[in-house]
Automatic annotation (TrEMBL):
Record-linked Gene3D superfamilies: 2.40.50.100, P-loop containing nucleotide triphosphate hydrolases
A cellular component annotation (GO) from this entry: ATP-binding cassette (ABC) transporter complex
Protein keywords: ATP-binding, Nucleotide-binding, Transport
Any GO MF annotation of the entry: ABC-type transporter activity
High-level lineage: Bacteria, Bacillati, Bacillota, Bacilli, Bacillales
Tree of life domain: Bacteria
Residue ranges of domain ABC transporter in the record: 4-234
Pfam families xrefs: ABC_tran, TOBE_2
PROSITE patterns: ABC_TRANSPORTER_1, ABC_TRANSPORTER_2
Protein's UniProt name: ABC transporter ATP-binding protein
Length: 358
């Protein structure tokens, strides 16, 4: 297994920007995800690691080995493509064995390795089937087996679940994570699906327009987004504009655009947030952290009128009009009466759950 370093990597396509100044160190054995909307540069970055593109500037290293200008077949990476790129006229066994044949592994060893990997991805007994006789999920596992059988140092996965339906996608993401943990292989995963990224990754790199926005654990990215883009791309959140009006010990006092006075913790500020009196800040408040007020909290209680309530069984989701702002909240269903449109509601926003994005 190997670490991967991208040292100030740029990729331009003629005049067009691909990615700009990607600077990351991925640890050996880490599950690292590139996350962002279409066109943000995820695939371009992955393709540079695989060797299908060469950087315009910067260096790529696997461990201490410089690979920046090595061709793909000299990098020992295994790649799973979005469309799997399987050979339709070959059997499952032949597809998986292909990379070993190219590497001139002798037939007995190849058979043993293919059988071992088929067991690992739960495809035992499917060796003789043609690819078009398999379900989408099974094809996905053949693609994964084909990438793994060559015993790569690094596994590269480009949106490997996007052709599967929602339920299978969820099952398969646990399967990939299980394999990754079992093999301890350094894995780089590309997706635009934040739930996938959050549930599988050790760390996530969030990208937008070819630029890195934030690198962190799922917990850091979710709870300490550095800017509005990250806050709204990862899960649902309320973004309120406010102005810092003062400080009280470790608390920051803020007047929101619609005049609510709220108090948050200084430690919940992203490095890019300007916390000084008179500065504008963006508050990120996750719906699940907003609670129905008991009337005893003292501070950070706002009142409003319910615009929408939605009962999902386990939860009740509210949208509440608070002054000129709207506030989404989500409560666990504890059997209390559900407020309806037009009802008055008091909501408590705990100071620990207010984050200051930059
Ligand atoms: N071969 C190419 N020639 C010119 N421009 C390219 C090429 N490949 C990518 N780009 C541009 O580089 C930028 C990043 O593209 P990239 O495919 O890496 O995005 P992405 O985040 O993987 O998107 P998607 O999720 O849609 O695959 C885009 O603006 C794209 O138009």
């Amino acid at each position: 297994m190997s670490s991967v370093t991208l040292d100030h990597v740029y990729k331009r396509f003629g005049q067009a920007k691909g990615v700009e100044d990607v600077h990351i160190h991925i640890e050996s054995g880490e599950f690292f995800t590139f996350l962002g909307p279409s066109g943000c540069g995820k695939t371009t970055t992955l393709r540079m690691i695989a060797g299908f593109y060469y950087p315009t500037e910067g260096h790529i290293r696997f461990g201490s080995q410089e690979v920046t200008s090595l061709p793909p077949h000299k990098r020992n990476t295994g790649m799973v493509f979005q469309n799997y790129a399987l050979f339709p006229h070959m059997t499952v066994f032949e597809n998986i064995a292909f990379g070993l044949q190219v590497r001139k592994v002798n037939k007995t060893d190849a058979k043993e390795r293919v059988e071992r990997i088929m067991k690992l991805v739960r495809l035992e007994g499917y060796g003789g089937r043609r690819i078009d006789q398999l379900s989408g999920g099974q094809q996905q596992r053949v693609a994964l087996a084909r990438a793994l059988v060559i015993e790569p140092q690094i596994l590269l996965l480009d949106e490997p679940l996007s052709n599967l339906d929602a339920k299978l996608r969820e099952e398969t993401r646990f399967e990939i994570k299980r394999l990754q943990l079992e093999l301890g292989i350094t894995t780089i995963y590309v997706t635009h699906d934040q739930a996938e990224a959050m549930s599988m990754s050790d760390r996530i790199m969030v990208m937008q327009s070819g630029e890195v926005q934030q690198i962190g654990t799922p917990h850091e990215i979710y709870h300490r987004p550095v800017n509005r883009f990250v806050a709204s791309f990862i899960g649902e959140t309320n973004l309120w504009e406010g102005t810092v009006t003062g400080f009280d010990g470790d608390e920051v006092l803020v007047r929101t655009a619609s005049g609510q006075m709220l108090s948050g913790l200084k430690e919940n500020a992203s490095p890019r947030a300007q916390l000084s009196v008179g500065e504008k800040v963006t508050l990120s408040i996750r719906p699940e952290s907003v609670l129905e007020s008991t009337g005893n909290e003292g501070q950070n209680v706002v009142t409003g009128s319910v615009v929408m309530s939605e009962f999902t069984g386990a939860c009740v989701n509210y949208v509440t009009e608070v002054g000129t702002e709207s506030l989404r909240s989500m409560s666990i269903n504890l059997g209390r009466p559900i407020k309806q449109r037009g009802d008055a509601i008091g909501l408590h926003i705990p100071k620990e759950s207010i984050y200051f994005a930059g």
